[in-house]
UniProtKB/TrEMBL annotation:
Family annotation (PANTHER family): TARTRATE-RESISTANT ACID PHOSPHATASE TYPE 5
GO biological process: bone resorption
Calcineurin-like phosphoesterase domain ranges (all copies): 59-138
Gene3D superfamilies for the chain: 3.60.21.10
Pfam families, per database record: Metallophos
Gene Ontology molecular function terms on file: hydrolase activity
Name the UniProt record assigns to this protein: Acid phosphatase 5, tartrate resistant
Signal peptide range in chain numbering: 1-21
Domain of life: Eukaryota
InterPro entries with a match to the protein in the record: Calcineurin-like_PHP, Metallo-depent_PP-like, Metallophosphoesterase_PAP
Classification via SUPFAM superfamilies: Metallo-dependent phosphatases
Keyword Cell wall biogenesis/degradation: no
Keywords tagged on the record: Hydrolase, Signal
Length: 171
């Protein structure tokens, strides 16, 4: 059985788990967190109380429910994305904020949003080589997960809707 999920952007933290039913046991599930529009501020301190609270609650959710991965669905860096691979926003808006023990070893699969496209998205893609958590291989990619002990494959399509539909500049 194959399940497909297409992912664009979200403006809220979303926790999800694909469960195959109580009779199949808890190990046959896929748990993940999804977050979008978390990009902090373009000026120091590069973060907001809402972002810090979201990060804290993601840590609680990952600790309580478990998380196999996190989907980051765009607007990772407000308001104009990042400048280059050495931009301090990677550290100060992402690494330092989403730092709960329960999040430290969880991979993030990343998409760009319209605010990211106002900056240097290729630097966000390149950051995948610098961070053990940040995975952004391309503007479009797919994730495939096979649930252990089953014939179930979950495919998540990561689609850059800004490139598909255009930048709405809605800010």
């Amino acid at each position: 059985m194959i399940r497909r999920i297409a992912v664009a952007g979200l403006a809220v933290l979303y926790t999800a788990a694909l469960s195959l039913g109580a009779d199949r046991g808890p190990s046959k599930s896929l748990g993940f967190l999804a977050v979008g529009d978390w990009g902090g501020l373009p000026v120091s301190p590069y973060t907001t109380p809402v972002e810090r609270t979201t990060a804290h609650q993601m840590g609680v959710a990952a600790e309580t429910l478990g998380a196999d991965f996190i989907l980051s669905l765009g607007d990772n860096f407000y308001f104009d994305g990042i400048k280059d691979l050495t931009d301090r926003r990677f550290q100060e808006t992402f690494e330092d904020i989403f730092s709960a023990e329960s999040l430290r070893d969880v991979p993030w699969f990343v998409l760009a949003g319209n605010h990211d496209h106002s900056g240097n998205v290729t630097a966000q893609i390149a950051y995948s080589n610098s961070s053990r958590r940040w995975n952004f291989p391309n503007y479009y990619y797919e994730l495939n997960f096979t649930l252990e002990g089953t014939n179930v494959t979950v495919t998540i399509l990561m689609l850059d809707t800004i490139l598909l539909c255009g930048n709405s500049d809605d800010y």
